[in-house]
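Task: fold both queries, return tokens.
Query 1:
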Amino acid sequence: MTITPLSIALVALGGAIGAVLRFTVGQFVDSSQFPWATFVVNVTGSFLLALITFSFTGLSAETRLFLFTGLFGAFTTMSTFSLETTQLLFDGKTLQAGINIFLNAGLCVLGAILGKYASVLFA
């Protein structure tokens, strides 16, 4: 797909919504002892992304840009996950960093698998 004013607008709109949703989760999930908000966003985003991908295979290119590149691109926070894990490591919290990696990597894949299975509900 080529870059057009419409494609830029769709990604920007989706990204704005995803970023606000991400911020909102961060306000309601306590991450003072562990980056739980990032974990919740990553698992939820992985599940929903897989559910939509496997349930609605005929989505237009524009809808895919809005949802996948924009909304989910801003909502899921693997870059934040990486930064928080690095910070845990540099703070000497090796065990917490390892747990963070295991939970995010393992359960996000599980979330995507569950999303694929849940997609039969929309078939």
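Query 1 returned. Query 2:
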Amino acid sequence: MGIVIYHNPACGTSRNTLAMIRQSGETPEVIEYLKSPPSRTTLGGLLEAMGLSPRELLRRKGTPYAELSLDNPDLTDDALIDAMMAHPVLINRPIVITPKGAKLCRPSEAVLDILPNPDIGPFTKEDGEVIIDEKGKRVD
């Protein structure tokens, strides 16, 4: 099994996560989920693999979350998944699947916890934040 990333190239967190995967020596399968959204079955499997509820995967910022009243606590998991199926932008990202597990990688350095080779050398995010210093130590 290789590595899969559900990616949005317009998202800095997603770009940083993809860069860390590649810097680890892996060539992931990149799924631009806004162009090719996961099926309902696949999304359910991802939620289960990550141990998240649909509500925990909902993206609020820059989405129709508020206008769809998705903050309503009475909405069922099925209703929230229906909303994500109708509006894939509601699916938070990036989601990464590796042989070591599946994870919503927010912040992007969370990907290091599931990479087969997390020793990627120095890494600085696009915004200048140092994640791994020149000595190979993770900066907290």
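Both queries returned. Flag for query 2: Helices lie at 12-23, 40-50, 54-57, 77-86.
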